[in-house]
Amino acid sequence: MHTLIIYHSDYDHTTQIAKAIKAGVLAAGNDADVVKHELVGDFNIDDLKHADVIIFGAPVHMGSMAWQMKKLLDATANLWMEAALEGKVAAAFVTCGGFGGAGGGAEHSLIGLHSHALEHGMLVIGFPKTLPGFSDAGLQWGLCVRTGNHEGMPTAINDRQLLAARSYGSHVRETAGRILRD
Ligand SMILES: Cc1cc2nc3c(=O)[nH]c(=O)nc-3n(C[C@H](O)[C@H](O)[C@H](O)COP(=O)(O)O)c2cc1C
């Protein structure tokens, strides 16, 4: 199975999470698995066609997904015309400062990523609350890693968040395997 993790990151938090998700996908896969993680800026949109599973990721900016990710998603209109992504499996993750104690737009951003996937006819996988890591970085809509403290300042990604990201990656791979029979 070919899994693509496509995301934006300015300050590396989202990249670290993308790498941990990749490790989880690989851990749950088989010898034939190919897993790539790509920043939106370096990305050729046609490569979305080659993936069986696409995991979309973004930092939360001003209450919704960072515009760089939205720009990429809007540019997939030609793929929509061809129905090129229909039937593929999708999942979503965000990182957020979460200032104020809540998500700060995290759920909204995840749902925005889901909307895009559903627009293409993709099958969206969430993050069930019984999975390892849910209490550290889980939302039923997907993985949500908080990268700010109570003063609103950035913090380093911690080991529990990395474990949650691996857990989510494994869950997506296992579920995609059941759906796509691989
Ligand atoms: C311009 C900007 C706007 C942001 N807006 C929000 C926000 O609305 N809600 C939130 O929870 N975090 C917000 N953040 C925090 C980022 O989502 C968080 O630091 C994220 O982990 C950054 O990811 P990165 O290191 O991959 O760039 C914002 C950060 C920036 C730079």
Give the SSE layout.
Blueprint lengths: L1 E6 L5 H16 L5 E6 L13 E9 L2 E2 L1 H8 L2 H6 L6 E8 L9 H14 L3 E3 L8 H4 E2 L2 E5 L12 H22 L2
Parallel strand pairs: 1-2, 1-3, 3-5, 5-6, 5-8
Antiparallel strand pairs: 3-4, 7-8
What does this molecule look like?
By secondary structure, this protein is an alpha/beta fold. The protein has one domain (2-180): 3-Layer(aba) Sandwich (Rossmann fold). 38% of the residues lie in helices and 23% in strands. The protein is built from six helices and eight strands; from the N terminus they run E-H-E-E-E-H-H-E-H-E-H-E-E-H. The protein has helices at residues 13-28, 67-74, 77-82, 106-119, 134-137, 159-180; strands at residues 2-7, 34-39, 53-61, 64-65, 89-96, 123-125, 138-139, 142-146. Strands 1, 2, 3, 4, 5, 6, 7 and 8 form an eight-stranded mixed sheet that branches. Strand 1 (2-7), helix 1 and strand 2 (34-39) form a beta-alpha-beta unit. Helix 1 (13-28) crosses helix 6 (159-180). The longest helix is centred in the last third of the chain and has 22 residues, at 159-180. The radius of gyration is 15 Å and the shape is globular. The protein starts with a strand and ends with a helix. It binds flavin mononucleotide. Flavin mononucleotide is lined by residues 9-14, 59-63, 95-99, 104-105, 147-148, 154.
